[in-house]
Structure formats: structure tokens, C-alpha cells
């Protein structure tokens, strides 16, 4: 077994889903805050390596977070290399686009894939990283949820349920893991990433109806992640960032 690293030095963050989109922006902001950042991705290997290379002290790890032992492998690699883990940001996620009224299209397989990535995925990180996060005394877990988990709507019914579930899980974890680890959620509305690039109809709706009359940028979600990390009296909360869309009746 590799010798354990010394825990001194700058704080360490893992960004699950840090290769692209919101996660990549979070990785960049954490780097600006002086973190050593571990970018985790599965398929977007070149993008993930490029994000890690753009950071002062970045590392890319390839892991399919749908697999049962992937989070543990990531955390063990982090412990061996750095001897500490201060922050986990879980921005990885999956969905399929199915109208909510199309009940017959939602097979067990659809449910299982979505719940595995969006609910079990962050849960497995919590189990794997609990002791390391607690060890530093000021650990942070931040999950990227979704407006779909707060309001009606979203790309599919299982996706919306998975985000509602992870929101509630984080509320319970805020309770269970205090005082050494704070757990919070940022729940975006429509953010311009590859995830939404062909969602023309919804983009028009948001631009027309939301009080801020535009869609969001990944950097704006990353800023909330940093804000939640700095907000030392906040835990178990869900912060919605949707340009005010949810205010519209
Ligand atoms: N964009 C929006 O409007 C919006 C709105 C609300 C919530 N969100 C949430 O924001 C998060 C990030 O989405 P995004 O918009 O930034 O889209 P994105 O760029 O497609 O990000 C999704 C990330 O999840 C990772 N991922 C997916 N399956 C994985 C697996 N099996 N193992 C490891 N990583 C995996 C992807 O990495 P690989 O490509 O390497 O697999 C990718 O980095 C998601 O949780 C999504 O639900 C997005």
C-alpha cells in the first residue's frame, strides 16, 4: 500500500463531474481560492485533463461514478496523494428527456440509471469521504441539485425525483454530519452548458418569462458554490439559482 501523504499544504477539493460545464467552472474557482483540485470525469477524459492542466495544482482522475466502488477509489487516491480532503463538490449527473406525461417510456432501467448517478453517486462519496472530511474539522460537501427538484418540471420525472431526493438527503446530512462537515445544495435553473445546448424551446421560455430575462452561466453557479463554502453558519440548505423563473406563476 502507498505511504500516506502528509496533510500539510493547501486545502484539497474533489469536483465530481469537473471535466465539463458547471463542474469545470467550479474547479477553476476553487483553484483561484487556492485549492488543490482533483477533477473527476468518466467519458470526457481530454476535457478533464485540460481543466486539470489549466489549474495551479490540478489532477484528473478518470472514474465512472455509476460504479459502486468508484467514489472509494477516488477518495483513497486523494488520501494517498494529499493526506487530506476538505471539500467535495458533486456536479456529476445524468438524465434522459422524457415528457412527464409519457409514463410508459419510464422503464425501471431509466429510474435505476438516474437514481444511481444522481442520488447513490453523492451518497457513496459521503460514505467514502466522511472520515477525511471530518478530520480537518471544516469539511464541505456541496451537491449540484436542480430547480427540477424543487418545482414541477425538468427533463424527465425520474430526474426531477432524483434531484428532490438528493436535496432532502443533503438536508439530512447537514444535520447528521455537523459540526465538522457542512452540506449544502445549489439548485440551478437553465444554465448554458452542453447539457442544455439543444433546448431551444426552454431557452426561449426562460428568456421571455424569467424576471432576469436570460439563462444562466456555469460561472454563476460556481460563484454560489464558493459562497456556500464561505458561509460558515449555513448547512443543510438548498439555494435556487434560476433567474427568478420559479417566481413566475
Ligand atoms: N445545465 C443546466 O441547465 C442544469 C440545470 C440544473 C441542474 N444541472 C445539474 O448540473 C450538473 C452538471 O451539469 P452540466 O450542465 O454542467 O452538464 P455537463 O457538462 O454535461 O456535466 C455533467 C457532468 O457529469 C459527469 N458524469 C456523467 N456521468 C458520469 C459518470 N458515470 N461518472 C463520472 N462523471 C459523470 C460528466 O462527465 P463525463 O462527460 O466525463 O461523463 C460531466 O462532467 C448535473 O448534475 C445537472 O443535473 C444542470
Automatic annotation (TrEMBL):
Molecular function GO labels: oxidoreductase activity, acting on the CH-OH group of donors, NAD or NADP as acceptor
A matching Pfam family: adh_short_C2
Residues passing through the membrane, by range: none
Keyword annotations of the record: Oxidoreductase
Keyword Oxidoreductase: yes
Superkingdom: Bacteria
PROSITE patterns assigned to the protein according to its UniProt record, in alphabetical order: ADH_SHORT
Stored PANTHER family: 3-OXOACYL-[ACYL-CARRIER-PROTEIN] REDUCTASE, SHORT-CHAIN DEHYDROGENASES/REDUCTASES FAMILY MEMBER
Family: Belongs to the short-chain dehydrogenases/reductases (SDR) family.
Name of the protein: Polyketide synthase
Source organism phylogeny: Bacteria, Bacillati, Actinomycetota, Actinomycetes, Kitasatosporales
Amino acid at each position: 500500500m502507498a505511504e500516506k501523504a502528509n496533510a500539510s499544504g493547501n486545502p484539497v477539493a474533489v469536483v465530481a463531474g469537473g471535466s465539463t460545464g458547471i463542474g469545470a467552472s467550479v474547479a477553476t474557482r476553487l483553484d483561484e481560492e487556492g485549492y488543490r483540485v482533483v477533477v473527476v470525469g468518466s467519458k470526457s477524459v481530454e476535457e478533464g485533463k485540460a481543466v486539470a492542466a489549466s489549474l495551479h495544482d490540478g489532477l484528473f482522475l478518470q472514474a465512472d461514478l455509476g460504479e459502486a466502488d468508484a467514489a472509494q477509489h477516488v477518495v483513497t487516491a486523494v488520501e494517498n496523494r494529499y493526506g487530506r480532503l476538505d471539500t467535495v463538490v458533486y456536479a456529476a449527473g445524468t438524465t434522459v428527456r422524457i415528457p412527464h406525461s409519457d409514463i410508459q417510456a419510464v422503464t425501471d432501467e431509466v429510474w435505476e440509471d438516474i437514481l444511481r448517478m444522481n442520488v447513490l453517486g453523492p451518497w457513496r462519496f459521503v460514505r467514502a469521504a466522511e472520515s477525511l472530511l471530518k478530520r480537518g474539522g471544516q469539511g464541505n460537501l456541496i451537491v449540484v441539485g436542480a430547480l427540477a427538484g424543487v418545482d414541477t418540471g425538468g427533463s424527465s420525472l425520474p430526474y426531477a425525483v432524483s434531484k428532490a431526493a438528493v436535496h432532502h438527503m443533503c438536508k439530512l446530512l447537514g444535520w447528521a454530519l455537523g459540526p465538522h462537515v457542512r452540506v449544502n445544495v445549489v439548485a440551478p435553473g437553465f444554465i448554458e452548458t452542453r447539457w442544455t445546448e439543444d433546448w431551444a424551446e426552454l431557452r426561449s421560455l426562460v428568456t421571455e418569462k424569467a424576471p432576469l430575462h436570460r439563462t444562466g452561466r456555469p460561472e454563476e453557479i460556481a460563484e454560489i458554490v464558493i459562497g456556500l463554502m464561505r458561509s460558515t453558519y449555513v448547512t443543510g440548505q438548498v439555494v435556487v439559482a434560476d433567474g427568478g423563473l420559479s417566481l413566475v406563476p
